[in-house]
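Reviewers asked in the last cycle whether our approach scales beyond single polypeptides. To address this, we selected a multi-component target totalling 572 residues and predicted its structure end to end. The input consisted of the following lines:
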Amino acid sequence: MIGVSLLSFFVMHLAPGEPTALFTDPNINPADLARIRVNWGLDQPIFVQYFYWLGNVLRGDFGTSYTTGQPVLTEVLQRLPATLLLMIPAYILTFLITVPLGVISAVKKGSWFDNLVTLFSFAGMAMPSFWLGLMLMLLFSVKLGWLPAVGMYDVGAGDWGLGARVFDLLRHMILPLLTMTLLSLAGITRYQRAAMLEVLDQDYIRTARAKGLPERVVIFKHALRNALIPIVTILGLSLPGLFSGAFIIETIFAWPGMGRLGVMAIFQRNYPLIMGIVIFSALLIMLGNLLADIGYALVDPRIRYGKS
Amino acid sequence: MGRASRFGIIILFIFILAAIFAPIIAPYDPGEIVDQTTLAPTLQHLFGTDDLGRDLFSRAVYGARISLTVGLVAVTISILIGTLMGALAGYFGGWLDGLIMRFVDVMLAFPSIFLILAIQAMLTPNIYNVMIVIGVTSWMGVARFVRGEYLRIRELSYVEAAKAIGCSHSRIIFRHILPNAQAPIIVAATLGMAGAILTESALSFLGMGVQPPTPSWGNMLIDAQAYMRDAPWLAIIPGLLILLTVLSLYFVGEGLRERLDVRS
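The resulting structure, written as structure tokens, was:
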């Protein structure tokens, strides 16, 4: 965690661009400029700036955004729900769809279904995320006109009743959610299929079949439970990818989440905000990995924490 | 897999030829305004014209040049760094291994596109920086593979023999072990190039990569979103080219993996 913060802090500050230049008149009086730089702490050496920043973060203060003057924490927390609103359902949907797809395609290896799934997962991995988003937008909002292309609510939705607003939100959610799910689905289904194939090759599966158990029991009780173990790990490892996707997908669909905030912060050289978002994403990714480890212990009886 | 990799090789071959002979193949200058804006594809303009009236086919051919070059150079950088890091970590082990692998973990904890965007924003976004930045942010997977190979190979008796006759560390690392760790590196390079092309397209699309007017498949999509209603081919064609290229690289990579018997 410290490593993440240190690395990104120094990378940020290697910038040749001067953040003050974006917000001030080029003809500003040098004394005023110096005063602004002192206010933002930009006159200090970079090590001092880092420890100053780190000390504040440990006290829960991520600094203030250069553009809005609001605390970074407030800005990020304001945007976080919108991002989680996409990421959590995308995550759950991915898991719910990928397991059956991967399992069926492994059990029926070489069938038309398996070939189709393989083709789709390769295509999904090879597609630029923003392009998939654009194509879905082209089909469903431009050509068919079924769904809104961008944003989170219609203009004027603030005056509607709760039911209408939830419905409106759901309509806006479908395209970004679909894009995100399809993208993470592709790679993980390949893993699920490979994991299931490996398990089906094991001796205990042959034993189970040899003692005359029905195929259904062999697949669901013996094979599936073992094939789920690697998937739990992969789901944890796929979190950074999902985050990277969020930055691009939120930008295309103008979804007011943390990703879009981050991309804007980068264009504005808003260091405190960029740092805040990096730290937040890293935290969430680590939390995800922790959850994956716990999930690992739940599905794999060989692993038990605390009793070694 | 055989059929798929053949398909991949053919597509890549065509695209590489197009990239090399771009000035001969492209009917127009990629930067020149040659006709009315947003014309649908016709025989005269195979892919139509873009929002400024430039010939999209010519731009796509020159774009192939840029996108493939960026992918190739970026993956070369990433393979060089990854191999060196992985070799040092795997061969020497101990604290050096710990240090390098912790660094790998840190790099992997970032959402990569955000890190790349942030670095790009610091530098002037031009084509050389795109190659370098993608290269230095994508070597971690290679480092892990290579480290694993070195951990395995350094225990083999021929390495022991090389040590016994007094070969230097660098000679063992590069002359004795490296040739035997080639297979996974070749596979990783093929798949890595696919990743680099995808990253370049995303960066250029967000305006932080290859800068217009130089055409790349990614930055050709920048304005396409605004013209989606009237000129959807502006958005469809460059994306399809990226998809085909990356897909072909995946197929070839998978084919190589089977041929060279590399475990994933």
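Chain A has two domains: 2-58, 80-268. We regard this as preliminary and will revisit it once experimental data from Aim 1 are available.
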